[in-house]
Amino acid sequence: DAGVTQSPTHLIKTRGQQVTLRCSPISGHKSVSWYQQVLGQGPQFIFQYYEKEERGRGNFPDRFSARQFPNYSSELNVNALLLGDSALYLCASSPLQGLGNEQFFGPGTRLTVL
Amino acid sequence: DAKTTQPPSMDCAEGRAANLPCNHSTISGNEYVYWYRQIHSQGPQYIIHGLKNNETNEMASLIITEDRKSSTLILPHATLRDTAVYYCIVRPHVSGGSNYKLTFGKGTLLTVNP
After folding, report:
1. Which residues are within 8 A (CB) of B33 and not within 5 positions of it... i.e. 6 or more apart?
2. Does A31 touch chain B (CB under 8 A)?
3. How confident is the model over A27-49, as pLDDT tens digits?
4. Is the CB of A10 inside 8 Å of chain B's CB atoms?
5. Contact B100 A97 (CB under 8 A)
6. What mean pLDDT is predicted for residues B48-71?
7. A50: contact with B, CB 8 A cutoff
8. Whole-number mean pLDDT of chain B?
9. Which of residues 77-96 of A touch B (CB under 8 A)?
10. CA distance B22 to B13
11. What is the pLDDT of residue B99?
12. How far is the C-alpha of A46 from the C-alpha of A43, rounded, in Å?
């Protein structure tokens, strides 16, 4: 079975640019979450979407936005990129039904801002 | 903020049991203990979770103290492929699309040596 997929795997942008990262959850999973992981730190929660609605937001500026599509895939958008946005961006999906509270993570998108 | 405390690093010999401790002295009655691990440059991987009883699956065992203020993740026969950062997380067992974030700390870097 396919796991969580993310695209692209690597991305290089310059300061001030905008970026869109994509995530496809495991088939049947309706919840998608996004995390940012800077070097040497654990992942930090950015957003959670469930049934196409935002259900949670972490402590990130409004330059960060996301959406979930009818097929439950998701996009994370970051505007006006800063050097500090360089990080591994992780997407996680979960069935969020019954006891399905485990989150399954994708391999991540490595964003480098120059 | 992370509500757990873990040692920053540990070493283990290949084939021996790896015992990773976690302190969560402020855990609430409805919070579960989750363990994830992250192998270098990959997304975190779910290992196991528990409320108050000891749990075991094909990957590991989780021992939770009676007062629930600490726990230990046990990898019974560590292999080189178990070298990773291990995260201990406490969170409520939510359902129905509620805010579902995982709060990661810095975790424990387990190095399995040949």
Report:
1. B22, B24, B27, B49, B50, B51, B62, B64, B68, B71, B88, B89, B90
2. yes
3. 988 889 999 999 989 999 999 99
4. no
5. no
6. 94
7. yes
8. 91
9. 88, 90, 92, 94, 96
10. 20
11. 57
12. 9
